Amino acid sequence: MEAPKRYRPNVAAVIVSPRYPFKCEIFIASRNDIEDAWQFPQGGIDEGESAKVALLRELKEEIGTNSIEILSEYPQWLKYDFPQKIAKKMYPFDGQTQKYFLVRLKKDAKINLMTKEPEFLSYKFVEPDKVFEHVTYFKRPVYKQVMNYFKKEGYL
Question: Which of 44, 56, 58, 148 is within CB 3.0–4.6 Å of 66 for a Cys-Cys bond?
């Protein structure tokens, strides 16, 4: 019998620019360790930490600001498996179980990718339908599910 898969608890942020709702632009960033791999900011939830506290901490660690307003949250946790070459790096986890939040950057937010341990090389804001032209292949199914939910709820 195969051992059950282990999923790392994680939060992810679908970030809209401060111009939202007048202009809907989604933040994506290019990872520094995987060539041409764009994604939403995300990160692990520490022991005893709530998803919302982890969200604020991860945003500060990854994009240099947690000056955000939470607009909505995806109602369930979503799972995905890592591709084989990433799974080795993420051992003992086989994938991630994630809680997604839709957040808006506040007008005073200053994005700074040169954090203590930089994860991203660059970032940009794209229209919602352009997100999938950039994001890495193994995250697309979950991203589509999340984006479709926020669209159906009237946010995007």
Answer: 56
Nearest to 119 by CA among 25, 54, 43: 43
Pick the CATH number of 7-152 from 1.10.150.130, 2.60.120.10, 3.90.79.10, 3.40.50.80: 3.90.79.10
Decide if pLDDT at 98 tops 90: yes
Q: Is the pLDDT of residue 1 over 80?
A: no
Which of 10, 15, 111, 131 minimizes the C-alpha distance to 61? 111
Token pair in block for residue 154: 């009237």
**pTM, to two decimals:** 0.95
Which residues, 6+ apart, have CB-to-CB distance to 137 below 8 Å? none
